[in-house]
Amino acid sequence: MLKIGVLVSGGGTNLQAIIDAIDSGKITNAEIVTVVGSRPGIYALKRAENHNIPSIVISRKSYDSAEEHDMAVCRHMQSCGAELIVMAGYLSIVGSGLIRAFENRIINIHPSLIPSFCGPGFYGIKVHEAALERGVKLTGATVHIVNEVCDGGPILLQKAVEVKSGDTPEILQRRVMEEAEWEILPRAIDMIANNKL
Ligand code: GRF
């Protein structure tokens, strides 16, 4: 049974997709052992509570440096026996300490077709604003391994999504989440849990 630790920072719709996929059997041989929020009061923590999944807030503000924050997250994940860390809409920096301790065992969902619209500064709604600004006809989402290059790790899965005329960044973000993120993140977890990757 693969033990998963999920990192969240916002509404938690990607966390919910994982929870639902485990409940429905789309993900087998895996369980979420902890949800770590980057700040209190985010709805993702409510989603964990609703499903009796242990959660904790480990906020950057509580630490003197990014390194100390990073090691606190690492120690927590190790104490929970997490074997895979999933960044699900997580906006804090994942540092080299955590990356080295969980080498090739951290995955992230990015809301574009990497290498487009990724790297420093490209997160959340900003990604979709850039895609609309460039005028691409296709965008999508990517699940990749997290390494020390921002959004630069090996790509595991991608799914394309059509950009439609009249799309606003919000409309496009929602379509990318519904049609791509919430599908490929659970699929990647299931493939890892069952040694299909
Ligand atoms: C969304 O922009 C998603 O594309 C990105 O993180 C943001 C929030 O996701 N991965 P969630 O609803 O908190 O999972």
UniProtKB/TrEMBL annotation:
Keywords: Purine biosynthesis, Transferase
Catalytic residues identified in the record: 110
EC number(s) from the headed UniProt entry: 2.1.2.2
Pathway: Purine metabolism; IMP biosynthesis via de novo pathway; N(2)-formyl-N(1)-(5-phospho-D-ribosyl)glycinamide from N(1)-(5-phospho-D-ribosyl)glycinamide (10-formyl THF route): step 1/1
Family: Belongs to the GART family.
Cellular-component GO terms for this entry: cytosol
The UniProt record lists the keyword Iron: no
Top-level lineage group: Bacteria
Site feature location: Raises pKa of active site His: 151
InterPro entries hit by this protein: Formyl_transf_N, Formyl_transf_N_sf, GART
Keyword Transferase: yes
SUPFAM superfamilies on file: Formyltransferase
Residues that hold N(1)-(5-phospho-beta-D-ribosyl)glycinamide according to the record: 12-14
A biological-process GO annotation: 'de novo' IMP biosynthetic process
Any one GO molecular function term: phosphoribosylglycinamide formyltransferase activity
Pfam families: Formyl_trans_N (PF00551)
Function recorded in the entry: Catalyzes the transfer of a formyl group from 10-formyltetrahydrofolate to 5-phospho-ribosyl-glycinamide (GAR), producing 5-phospho-ribosyl-N-formylglycinamide (FGAR) and tetrahydrofolate.
Domain Formyl transferase N-terminal: 3-189
HAMAP family, per database record: PurN
Primary enzyme class: transferase
Catalytic activity of the protein: N(1)-(5-phospho-beta-D-ribosyl)glycinamide + (6R)-10-formyltetrahydrofolate = N(2)-formyl-N(1)-(5-phospho-beta-D-ribosyl)glycinamide + (6S)-5,6,7,8-tetrahydrofolate + H(+)
Residues the entry annotates as binding (6R)-10-formyltetrahydrofolate: 108
Gene3D superfamilies in the cross-refs: Formyl transferase, N-terminal domain
Protein name per its UniProtKB record: Phosphoribosylglycinamide formyltransferase
